[in-house]
Design goal:
single chain, mainly alpha, 10 helices, 68% helix, 0% strand
């Protein structure tokens, strides 16, 4: 794998990636906590996880190390934050509540991606000349808005993977018969090594990145549909 060339364009790419990634990840986590709060669980609010302060949501590996590693090699920027604490016993229907809380984060990312794509369309339809004439406007349009759409879609589909600590692990639980749930939760505890192998080891050894293939097929396809 070749290292990126450090030039002005790459520096702008990194800065825009960080500026896009932080709000995408923070609002993803706040959506989890807010959904749980609206369902009657005060746990996330009491833990300060409804805050928009990024420091309240940082996981050293998932929020810092992993995204920087992926940016460095110009791979899809993905990551995760500290899991939002919630107590399903507060929900009227714990399994349905689990599903709603699990989907809230990815849906927040989809919503943000659609808003950014809508702004792109407005610019394309009404002020296309501004993108060509103004360098700052051009950077906002080409580097920031497009990157914001992609990062939100990457985070959405990445977090839908049924591997802890990702959201898909809680969403898939509703599909499992109650009698099998204890075994599922037992297996769930050992899923992190599988997650790290898929992210780091497999691409290094086989020179094939299954996560990138998956994200290009899902997030990439949707981005092509919604962006001008």
């Amino acid at each position: 794998m070749s290292l990126p060339i450090f030039n002005t364009e790459y520096l702008i790419y990194v800065i825009c990636s960080v500026l896009c990634f932080i709000p995408a990840l923070v609002l993803h986590e706040v959506a989890h906590g807010y959904a749980a709060y609206k369902l009657g669980d005060p746990t996330a609010k009491a833990a300060g996880r409804l805050s928009l302060n990024p420091l309240h949501h940082i996981d050293i590996f998932g929020t810092v190390v992993l995204p920087l590693f992926l940016m460095f090699f110009r791979m899809p920027v993905i990551g995760y934050a500290k899991p939002v604490p919630y107590n399903p016993s507060f929900f009227k229907d714990p399994r349905k509540g689990d599903l709603i809380v699990g989907l809230a984060g990815p849906l927040a990312n989809l919503f943000m991606a659609l808003i950014a794509a809508g702004i792109c369309w407005l610019i394309t339809l009404f002020v296309p000349q501004a993108v060509q004439d103004n360098i700052a406007f051009q950077m906002f349009y080409v580097f920031f808005l497009n990157q914001f759409v992609m990062i939100n879609l990457f985070l959405m589909f990445f977090n839908l993977l049924p591997i802890p600590p990702l959201d898909g692990s809680s969403i898939i639980a509703i599909l499992i018969p109650i009698r099998w749930l204890p075994k599922y939760y037992m297996i769930e505890r050992y899923a992190m090594p599988i997650f790290l192998i898929l992210i780091i080891v497999v691409p290094y050894i086989l020179h094939v990145n299954p996560i990138s293939l998956y994200l290009n097929a899902t997030a990439g396809s949707i981005a092509n549909l919604i962006l001008p």
